Structure formats: structure tokens, C-alpha cells
């Protein structure tokens, strides 16, 4: 079997077929950096991390884009309240977000474009929608997307036209729009925006981008600049609250401008709840990753807790759940230690049946729309069976080494072993520099230098693999 994913666009589980395998271009909506992200947000980012890591395990060459929303109503209001500029307000939250991602062992995206850095691309996108007659400038100086003129609006969220009208009327305070369903692409600058530096000149008036515009412009810009012609992402993911209106509007803007499908697979993660209510800043029922770090909670336990429920089901956070997860990761760590001891200095000389069953069970689970709870069951079945077989003296040293290799390969995807090596951002940047230097040395036929670089990386626990798509690396577990 191969990977199958639930696509919100069709409401079906479909075989995963990227546009140009082995490449997978994946876009995930990033945090709004007006404040600290909470662990509800991180449930979504962890589901996306599992997706990214599993795609790489399967051999795909993933390019991951995550935007940072550093201009919107919330960031502007928070900067005003703090009496600082937008950039001064958001920077510390960006720093903490990265630190939290490292703590939770989330593999860094390849790029983190900030909305404020991509305003020229956003202006171009609005201009092309105006040129195509899909947008209009209203009396209030803002520019809106004309939903009526875009065929297929509502396809993703399956929200009917009537419901849209009724819902939008209640929420709408923008009276200049031609149709209540229309949404702002570009908002006319207000004195509040100006006071924090959140206003830019554009041919259609000074203003700032709407939130939806940001993701379309960043995604299309990255696709064009890095991958030539393509206008289609393989995967776009986020939490379920983004299906409507955010992702529906992203489709309208992107497909309206390019005439081509924007996304192949739309993936949405369900909410983390507390006492049955969505975890949210608004309900003051949230916990941050830093809270858990200060309580010395192991990141492996947090990952285990989150992966214990399928990403498309709601999950209620409790302290009991967390302590159960802590016990679970300790059992995994104890088993690994037992395998290390049983392997001694031996080289791998065989794959025990139990280890084969582990990898098969793990793959079957994650191939089935990332069924992480079943992948965890495969791990715990292995723990029980191997403990029994080791007690009975069934495994030789070489088999224990072989079993350990498989164990490390599958747990690398889930990252559930306490104290396991994590990818550190500075190390990652340094490794990328070394790989570039090695490539240059090889091009200059200076193989001595190229080998010296590989050795230095190896001394720091980094192994390289040269593939037709370029050099990959991994930090080997010590
Ligand atoms: P925001 O910072 O509000 O833009 O949200 C960042 C991400 O977190 C989005 O993908 C949201 O869908 C997601 N999100 C927000 N609240 C929750 C929650 N309680 N559980 C899971 N995901 C959430
Ligand atoms: Zn987005």
C-alpha cells in the first residue's frame, strides 16, 4: 500500500500523487505573531510535522513553506496597545515561536516568509485580479474580491450560497461592498495602521493586505521563483477553522489570477479542546509550549499525547492524558536502552521478525491517512513482544542491532524518545553552509577539501547522502 490522504476538497481519502514526484511542495498556514502560540496551535503544527517527516521517510523531496502573519487586525491592535511599531511588536513572538518549534522537535520549514516582506507580490496579485475583472475598488478606498464573478466559490467549504449570504450579513461591517460575500483583498489605510507602520502605497490606494491575500501571494511567489512555471501546491494544510473563509478565499484569489488549480490536497487538522471547548486565546483556556517547558514536561510526551488521537478527530487535553503519555515514552525509552545493551558492539546481522512487523505496522498505519494512533500501537506491540523475546533469550547481538536500526528509523518520524537528538536550528544552518561549500569544492575538483568537509560533518554526528535531487543530511542518533 502507499500513502493515502483525506482531501477536504473531495471529502475522500485519496492516493497521494504529487505533481512532480519525488518533489512535494507543501504550504502550511503559520502563526499570527501578535502573541504566543498555544498548544492548540501546536497540535496543528505537530500534525503537519508528522506529515512532513513521514513524506521524507517515504523518500519524497519535500519543500515546506510556512508564512508568518505579521500584519493583520490583531497584530496592529497589539502593537498599538504596546505603543511600538508592528515590527518591534512581532519580532519577540517570532523568536519564541521558533524556540517553541525546536522544543517540540518540529522540523523547520525551508522558508518562513513574513507577510510584511512580500507586499510587492501581494500588490501584483491584487492588480491582476483587478485586470481580470474579479476585483473592484469600493467607495471606502478598499479593494474587494467579487465572489459572484468567480465560478466555483464554495467548493472547498461546501457552504451554499444562501447560507453564505445570511452568515455574512451578520458579520459584515463593510457596507461599501457590492455583495456581502465579497472579502477585502486590500484595506484602505487608517490612521491606526499608519501609526504602527502598517501601510503601503499601491496603484489602487495606500493600504495593507487582507489576511487571505497573504497566503495566496506567498505560495504563488514561492512556486514561481523556485519551481518555474508551477502554480499548484501539492499540499496545503491548516486547522479546520481555516477551511472557511480563509482557504476558500485563497482558492478564489489564486485560481482567479492563474486559471489553474491552486492545491492538489487540502488537509485540515481538528481542534485541541479543553473541557470540550476549543483551546483559544479568546476563551482564556490556553497553555503555551513555554508553560509546559517550565513544568519540565518532556517534548516526547507532548508529541505522544497529540499523536494518540487521529488528526481529524477532536482531542481533549487533560493532565491525566499528559501523565499517561509520559509513562508511555518512558516505556519506549526503556525498551530502546534494552536493545542497545543487547546489541553490544555487534553489527546488524539480521532483521528479527518482530522488527519487520513493526515497520510494516507503522507504515500501514501512517499510509492510512496518517493514522498515528495505530502507529503508536505498532510501537507498543513491539515493546511487549521484544521484552518477551529478550527475556527468553531469543535474540542474538546482531539481531538486536538490526532491530535497533529499524526502531530508530521509525521513531525518527514520530520523535517520541525522551532525550533523543533533535534538529537544532543553528546546526541545521551550519550544515547547509557546509554542504554548499562541499559542492563548490567538488565543482572545483578539490576533492581533498570536499572529503575534509564530509569528515568534519561526520565528527559532529551528521551523515550525508548524495541523491539525484541533491545532498541530503541527517543527524545520527548517538
Ligand atoms: P493563528 O495563529 O490563529 O493564525 O493559528 C495558527 C494555526 O493554529 C491555524 O492552522 C489554526 O487553524 C490552528 N489552531 C487554532 N486554534 C486551534 C486549536 N484549538 N486546535 C488546533 N489547531 C488550532
Ligand atoms: Zn493561510
Index terms:
four-stranded parallel beta sheet; binds zinc ion; alpha/beta; binds adenosine monophosphate; 14% strand; 16 helices
Describe this structure as you would to a colleague:
The chain is α/β, with parallel strands linked by helices. Helices cover 49% and strands 14% of the residues. It is built from 16 helices and 15 strands. The chain has helices at residues 39-57, 73-82, 86-103, 119-131, 161-171, 191-195, 211-227, 243-258, 289-294, 299-307, 319-343, 353-367, 372-391, 397-414, 425-443, 447-459; strands spanning 4-7, 12-15, 23-28, 61-66, 135-137, 143-145, 183-188, 207-209, 233-239, 263-269, 272-274, 277-278, 315-316, 462-467, 470-475. The strands form 5 sheets. A 4-stranded parallel beta sheet has the order 4-3-9-10, with helices on both faces. The protein is globular, with a radius of gyration of 24 Å. The chain starts with a strand and ends with a strand. The mean pLDDT is 93. The structure holds adenosine monophosphate and zinc ion (ZN). Adenosine monophosphate binds at residues 29, 31-32, 40-41, 43-44, 69, 238-239, 241-242, 271-272, 278-280. Zinc ion binds next to loops.
Q: Kindly report the average pLDDT value.
A: 93
Kindly provide the radius of gyration, computed on alpha-carbon positions and rounded to a whole number of angstroms: 24 Å
Number of strands: 15
- Number of helical runs? 16
Taken as a percent bin, the fraction of beta residues is: 5-15%
Shape annotation: globular
Secondary-structure content class:
alpha/beta
Bound molecules: adenosine monophosphate, zinc ion
Tell me the strand order in the biggest sheet.
Answer: 4-3-9-10
In whole angstroms, the N-to-C terminal distance is 32 Å
- Point out poorly predicted stretches: none
Helix content: 40-55%
Largest sheet: 4 strands, parallel
Amino acid at each position: 500500500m502507499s500513502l493515502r490522504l483525506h482531501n477536504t476538497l473531495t471529502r475522500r481519502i485519496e492516493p497521494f500523487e504529487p505533481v512532480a514526484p519525488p518533489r512535494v511542495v507543501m504550504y502550511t498556514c503559520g502563526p499570527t505573531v501578535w502573541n504566543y502560540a498555544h498548544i492548540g496551535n501546536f497540535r496543528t503544527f505537530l500534525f503537519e510535522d508528522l506529515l512532513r517527516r513521514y513524506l521524507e521517510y517515504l523518500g519524497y523531496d519535500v519543500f515546506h513553506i510556512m508564512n508568518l502573519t505579521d500584519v493583520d487586525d490583531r497584530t496592529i491592535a497589539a502593537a498599538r496597545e504596546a505603543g511600538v511599531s508592528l515590527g518591534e511588536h512581532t519580532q519577540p513572538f517570532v523568536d519564541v515561536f521558533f524556540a517553541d518549534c525546536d522544543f517540540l522537535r518540529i522540523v523547520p520549514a525551508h522558508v518562513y516568509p513574513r507577510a510584511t516582506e512580500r507586499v510587492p507580490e501581494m500588490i501584483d496579485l491584487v492588480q491582476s485580479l483587478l485586470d481580470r475583472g474579479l476585483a473592484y475598488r469600493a467607495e471606502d478606498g478598499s479593494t474587494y474580491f467579487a465572489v459572484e464573478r468567480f465560478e466555483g466559490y464554495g467548493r472547498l467549504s461546501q457552504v451554499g450560497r444562501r447560507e453564505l449570504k445570511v452568515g455574512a450579513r451578520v458579520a459584515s461591517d463593510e457596507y461599501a461592498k457590492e455583495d456581502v460575500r465579497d472579502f477585502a483583498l486590500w484595506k484602505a489605510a487608517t490612521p491606526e495602521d499608519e501609526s504602527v507602520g502598517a501601510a503601503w502605497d499601491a496603484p489602487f490606494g495606500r493600504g495593507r493586505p487582507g489576511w487571505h491575500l497573504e497566503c495566496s501571494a506567498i505560495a504563488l511567489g514561492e512556486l514561481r521563483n523556485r519551481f518555474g512555471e508551477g502554480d499548484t501546491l501539492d499540499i496545503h494544510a491548516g486547522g479546520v477553522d481555516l477551511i472557511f473563509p480563509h482557504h476558500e478565499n485563497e482558492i478564489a484569489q489564486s485560481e482567479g489570477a492563474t486559471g489553474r488549480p491552486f492545491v492538489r490536497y487540502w488537509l485540515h487538522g481538528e481542534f485541541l479542546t479543553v473541557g470540550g471547548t476549543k483551546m483559544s486565546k479568546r476563551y482564556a483556556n490556553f497553555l503555551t509550549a513555554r508553560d509546559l517547558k517550565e513544568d519540565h514536561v518532556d517534548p516526547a510526551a507532548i508529541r505522544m499525547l497529540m499523536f494518540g488521537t487521529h488528526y481529524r478527530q477532536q482531542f481533549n487535553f487533560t493532565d491525566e492524558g499528559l501523565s499517561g503519555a509520559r509513562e508511555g515514552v518512558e516505556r519506549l525509552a526503556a525498551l530502546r536502552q534494552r536493545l542497545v545493551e543487547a546489541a553490544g558492539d555487534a553489527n546488524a546481522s539480521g532483521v528479527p521478525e518482530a522488527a519487520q512487523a513493526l515497520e510494516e505496522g507503522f507504515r500501514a498505519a501512517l499510509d492510512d491517512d496518517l493514522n498515528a494512533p495505530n502507529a503508536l500501537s505498532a510501537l507498543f506491540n513491539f515493546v511487549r513482544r521484544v521484552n518477551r523475546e529478550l527475556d527468553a533469550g531469543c535474540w542474538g547481538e546482531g539481531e538486536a542491532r538490526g532491530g535497533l536500526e529499524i526502531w530508530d528509523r521509525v521513531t525518527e518520524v514520530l520523535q517520541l524518545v525522551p532525550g533523543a537528538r533533535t534538529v537544532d536550528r543553528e546546526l541545521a544552518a551550519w550544515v547547509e553552509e557546509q554542504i554548499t561549500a562541499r559542492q563548490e569544492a567538488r565543482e572545483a575538483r578539490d576533492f581533498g577539501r570536499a572529503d575534509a568537509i564530509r569528515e568534519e560533518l561526520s565528527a559532529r554526528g551528521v551523515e550525508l547522502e548524495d541523491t539525484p535531487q541533491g545532498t541530503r543530511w541527517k543527524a545520527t542518533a548517538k
